[in-house]
Specification:
Length: about 325
């Protein structure tokens, strides 16, 4: 079980020693997340983010949750933001907030005031995020021309990332039985444990089918994307595919999430309404999609600048 893997937590945190109280509370929080039915990727998110908090505390010689102060949290966020994006810093804040709120409800410590109540969430700009460039993806796909296992699998993986907008954790969790012959894909382990359906276009479905045919007869519970030995492809393996293909193509390696942004932006540019796109991407609200809408408005402005009639008449 993820929450019980104390050694892993210590390694992520970079600690050789772990105070029993901290270990107990972090484990208790992770077990609570699992008991609530949160997706494995979500529990891993909390595990990894809280490791930054515990490492920061250890560096200051702190061992108890109740030693955390608003000032310490601000210092943590400031230090973290020096090497991470605004989104990453905001994610750390959310994880720490969830943990401290849980601790207050679970432990009910006397005369303790939750320090997160005095710490405002870090600002995240509304500037549109860049998608994976189409030319970059094409160059990477061009390196998958062979008929070897890795060529067929990697091509299927890259096309599926682009054609569905799946999160990396969602893609590696797919089973063979989640894919139908018509190209619909059941996402069972979406963010927040939500189930949804996405779709493969005819070209992507053809390449995924070629890859699966090479693997032979498979049970429905077998991983859709696997290593050559048949074990489930993990997040790190997925990231390695993208990096390796980018290196072979001589292009900068896009992030896994930038494929998701490329999917969203392409859909908006081709007329998909935001509510359908929200369901396809598994977003709880439209706040993230608004950043993509800003980008498409920029596309329209440039189009008008190129073809607006009045500027060319006067």
């Amino acid at each position: 079980m993820l929450a019980l893997n104390t050694l892993r937590i210590r390694q992520v945190a970079g600690l050789d020693a772990w105070h029993p109280a901290c270990e107990k509370e972090v484990q208790g929080f992770l077990i609570d997340r699992q008991a609530r039915g949160l997706a494995t990727g979500t529990v891993r998110f909390y595990e990894q983010k809280l490791a930054h908090l515990t490492r920061f505390m250890a560096g200051l010689g702190l061992t108890e949750v109740e030693q955390v102060t608003p000032r310490l949290l601000r210092q943590l966020l400031l230090q973290f933001s020096a090497e991470h994006s605004e989104g990453g810093t905001h994610a750390l804040y959310r994880a720490v907030k969830a943990f401290l709120n849980w601790y207050g409800d679970e432990a009910e410590p006397a005369d303790w005031r939750n320090p997160i109540l005095k710490v405002k969430a870090p600002k995240v700009s509304d500037e549109p995020l860049d998608p994976a460039p189409v030319d970059t993806i094409k160059a990477m796909l061009a390196t998958c021309k062979g008929k070897a296992y890795h060529d067929l699998r990697d091509k299927a993986v890259l096309l599926t990332l682009l054609d569905t907008g799946l999160r990396a954790s969602e893609l590696v969790a797919l089973n063979v039985g989640d894919l139908t012959s018509t190209g619909s894909v059941l996402v069972r382990q979406g963010k927040g444990g939500k189930v949804r359906t996405v779709f493969l276009g005819s070209k992507t479905l053809r390449e995924v089918t070629r890859y699966l045919r090479l693997r032979g007869v498979l049970a429905g519970g077998a991983p859709l994307f696997a290593t050559e030995q048949g074990s489930r492809l993990k997040y790190e393996g997925l990231r390695d595919i993208v990096r390796r293909r980018a290196e072979q193509a001589g292009v900068p390696a896009p992030t896994l999430h930038s494929f998701r942004r490329a999917f969203a932006l392409a859909c908006l540019r081709h007329g998909v309404d935001v509510y359908s796109l929200q369901r396809l991407m598994g977003h709880a609200d439209l706040s993230v999609l608004r950043r993509y809408l800003a980008q498409t408005e920029g596309d329209l402005r440039r189009a008008h600048e190129r073809g607006g009639p009045v500027d060319r008449l006067l």
